[in-house]
TrEMBL record:
The protein's name in its UniProt record: STAS domain-containing protein
Pfam families (alphabetical): STAS_2
InterPro entries, per the entry: MlaB-like_STAS, STAS_dom, STAS_dom_sf
Residue ranges that the Swiss-Prot or TrEMBL entry lists as coiled coil: none
STAS domain span: 1-99
Species of provenance: Rhodanobacter geophilus
Amino acid sequence: MIVHHDPELDCLTLQMGERFDFSIHRDFHDACLGDGKPARSYVIDLGEVTGMDSSALGMLLLLREHAGADRADIRIVNAAGELRSTLRVAGFDKLFVLH
């Protein structure tokens, strides 16, 4: 996972690696929730992800709550094929902006 923070826009971008699962829970938590103060916006890039489990969905929900729930500005980008289908079946297309 590569994390980039644009201080001018206060946007945190997480470029996920091949696996988006429980093995990165601590890193995801530290990057998104670690300092306690939410960023103005978030971009979760799933372009390299080949596998995602239910803990990844849970991490996204925790981020959404941390970022302000319905007021959160979180974009999930580059989710293709099966990942996009999983997100839609789980109703995440209603909770997040999917690009």
